[in-house]
Amino acid sequence: MYVSTRGNSRVSASTAIVEGIAPDGGLFVPEHLEKLNVADLLGADYTTVARKVFGLFFDDFSPAEIEEAVACAYNKTNFPSGEVGLHTAGDRTFLELFLGPTLAFKDMALTALPHLVRIAKRKLGLRHRTLVLVATSGDTGGAALSGFRGAEGFDTLVLYPLGGVSQMQEKQMLSFTDDHTHAYALEGNFDDCQTYVKQLFAAYPADAQDVKLSSANSINIGRLVPQVVYYVYAYLRLVANGTLAMGEAMDVAVPTGNFGDIFAAYLAREIGTPIARFCCASNANNVLYDFFRTGTYDANRPFHKTYSPAMDILISSNLERLLWYATEGDGAQVAGYMSALAKDKRYTVSAEVRRRLQDFDYAYCDNATTLASIRAVYEELGYLVDPHTAVACHCAPHGPRHTLVVSTASPYKFPSTIAEALGLPLLEDEMQVAQAVSDYTHTPIPQGIAKLFGSTVPRHKTTKAEVADLVMPHITVKVPASTANLGCAFDVAGMALALYNTYLFAEADKDELAGFAEADMADNLVLKAYHYAQNALGMATRPVKIRLLAADIPYSSGLGSSAACIVAGVVAANALGAGTADDGRLLDIMTALEGHPDNVAPAFLGGLTVNLADDGEVRSYRLPVHESLRFSLLVPPFALPTKKARKVVPAAFARQDAVHNAARCALLPTALATGDMDLIRQVVDDRWHQPYRLPLIEGAADVKAALEAEGLAVALSGAGPTLLAIGKQYASPQGVDASWKILHLTPDGAGATII
Q: Which residues pair with 529 in a beta bridge?
């Protein structure tokens, strides 16, 4: 069983893993610690040790469930070079914890945590989605995004301090983002991010059913316990290679920020691993150094950005767990300390508590000393360390026992710092710096870093208000762009394309808009569609906050920007209400708002649709598109309002033009299904709207001619100024004005989705 450090909760291991943090704000700790006979594991591989340690801490997991979690985490896919490495030099051994997917020690826990949470939810009969909320000073974010990416039933949101992580750490985090994994830069430092995460946990509705919060920070016991494993395993390896005798104690030196890694070493000792002393190594943010030296924890001090950003922390959350043990489980006393910390950023422990912490040594070093340590280790030992490991190495004692120095990250995650330490030229691009370090030291750039070269995923700077919208109960609707009319198929056919607008909807006390260029409620089409659908579906009118998260569909360009608004509003109204309306009813509502179904149908249903509307009822038919076809969109630097485009189209057509278009409409399904370019060129030969609208678009005739010279079929997209080019290759027209944007898009088969 697990109890809260603040004394008001007692839960199973599974519940502790799922909830992450106790309802009273405390952290979960094991009520009792079982002992491990370390000698029995001599010669065991990493997975065997992990199974044994997990079994001690997760007492309500069956052996099969523990085996499942361990096998999913520790394998050749995640750790192709093995789980950990050891490099011994004199009276020290570097414990290399950077062999996993993100090249940092957090991988050792965050490859296991998704599976522990998944199994715990299954054991507890929970079917809700889990939103994993993470604050990071660098490495936890990448490891959490990597670990939870693709995990069924999870969304992950990482907050990191803007400008407070290395370029490489940021690039790595962003490389693991998708629809369900997000990384956001927040103004402030790590403590600001971590404090806000705790506030969100406290504010989140306890009765939320569909989505519940959990954490991947070391405040989650499921994240912390896997870190115990490598201390046990490292000790066994040192015994096996003759560095230590069985039963002989070692010291550990740990670069320390949030106190999770060093507390895992403390737990390793408490279950039976022979560890004598713990060196808490700090950088210039030396709040822990002062705490162990004086007994007073005082976060009222300047915050320093250092070369070891993962340690740039003034509120060390896991120290609370150590205090629980040092007070012999006195939750009220720990709660008092934490209350004082929240109120005054300061508390002082009793003399008795200080006495029980005497096994912790403490030291710190500044930026200059960190650089000197990197350089000294390389020159004296021929070994390259990252700045965090350099801090631990400088602070670690020499003798009388062998010291295990925890090496927490690959030096290539901090190439600029390494280059400065070695006296190499400093360049703005960290990728170039990494190559220079590799050339100088003759060490290979890890594949996990090399794959980031050329990465261009943009940073997303956020605010607390936006984060709150993302975290508090809501739905997010993602709607694709659409191209309509398709040459001859005027107001009839449309196709969804993989370009998206994304909207967040949350119930509110009053209607509110955020993220839109214009915040005029009366004219906002998403809000109008939302309330129109509520009325059409017989729902009570409920206010909503709508945040535009991404607006990638160009406005008034013939790519369905208005249809995306309508589809999003209707889908959200149905989802936040009873959610019982079928697709046909929703499509009828969308068509009533848009006036015709050619854009809303594909945006809602996905794919290529041919649509019939009779007496307010819409029937949509999805048609196949040949996989060999390529679609390019050429978007000019100006909008063409639909009203203006419609004005130039005649109210009636000559009989021969009607026959011409009708015949080509009959060809459309066969042409697109077979990919026959001769048929497609005939299909786009329109006489109903294109001859009248094309002259409204400056330069369009020349662009169309250039595209057709490449053998492409060309049509107007919708009522806007965008040209759609269809062919067996993407468009690359020569001589097109550089102000025209060229988009190469694939058909979207899913349509509007709730993510």
A: none
Q: In this structure, which topology does domain 630-745 adopt according to CATH?
A: Alpha-Beta Plaits (3.30.70)
**Other CB atoms closer than 10 Å to residue 538's CB: what's the count?**
9
**pLDDT (tens digit per residue) in 278-305:** 999 999 999 999 999 999 999 999 999 9
CATH architecture of 2-450: 3-Layer(aba) Sandwich (3.40)
Does the pTM surpass 0.85? The reply is no
Cα–Cα distances in Å, from 8 out to 23, 214, 329, 341, 713? 8, 19, 12, 19, 70
Residue 68 reports pLDDT greater than 80: yes
The answer to whether 723 touches 559, Cβ cutoff 8 Å, is no
* Contacts of 244 by beta carbon, 8 Å cutoff, 6+ apart: 235, 238, 250, 274, 402
φ/ψ (deg, to 5) at 605:
-95, -25
Residue 697 has pLDDT above 70, yes or no: yes
Distance CA 313, CA 310 (A): 8
> Class of 472-625 per CATH?
alpha beta
Q: What is the pLDDT of residues 330-355, one digit of tens each?
A: 999 999 999 999 999 999 999 999 99
Residue 735 pLDDT > 70? no
Residue 91 in contact with residue 399, Cβ under 8 Å? yes
Q: What percent of the chain is modeled with pLDDT above 70?
A: 100
Looking at residue 527, what is its pLDDT?
96
The DSSP secondary structure of 192-255, one letter per residue, reads HHHHHHHHHHHHS-TT--SEEEEE-STTSHHHHHHHHHHHHHHHHHHHHTTSS-TT--EEEEEE
pLDDT tens digits for range 699-712: 999 999 999 999 99
Nearest residue to 491 via CA among 570, 593, 595: 595
Q: Give residue 144's region: left, alpha or beta (phi > 0; psi -120 to 50).
A: alpha
- Is the Cα torsion angle 227, 233, 234, 236 positive or negative in sign? positive
Cβ 61 vs Cβ 119: under 8 Å: yes
Residue 582 neighbours by CB distance under 10 Å: 8
Assess whether pLDDT exceeds 80 at residue 734.
Answer: no
Angular region, 247: left φ>0, alpha ψ -120 to 50, beta rest: left
Which residues have C-beta within 8 Å of that of residue 111, sequence separation ≥ 6?
72, 73, 74, 78, 79, 100, 101, 143, 146, 147
Residues 6+ apart with CB under 8 A from 508: 543, 544, 545
Residue 612: which of 496, 516, 494, 444 has the closest Cα?
Answer: 494
Distance of CA 7 to the CA centre of its chain: 33
Question: What are the sequence ranges of the domains in the chain?
Answer: 2-450, 472-625, 630-745
Give the Cα separation of 571 and 554 in Å (integer). 21
What mean pLDDT value characterizes the chain?
93
Task: Using DSSP, state whether 106 is helix, strand or coil.
Answer: coil
CA 662 vs CA 367, 651, 657, 685: distances in Å: 75, 17, 8, 11
* Consecutive H or E run containing 129: strand 129-135
Around Cβ 619, how many Cβ atoms within 10 Å?
A: 14
- Rounded distance, CA 427 to CA 619, Å? 60
Residue 138 has pLDDT above 90, yes or no: no
Is 604 in contact with 588 (CB distance < 8 Å)? Answer: no
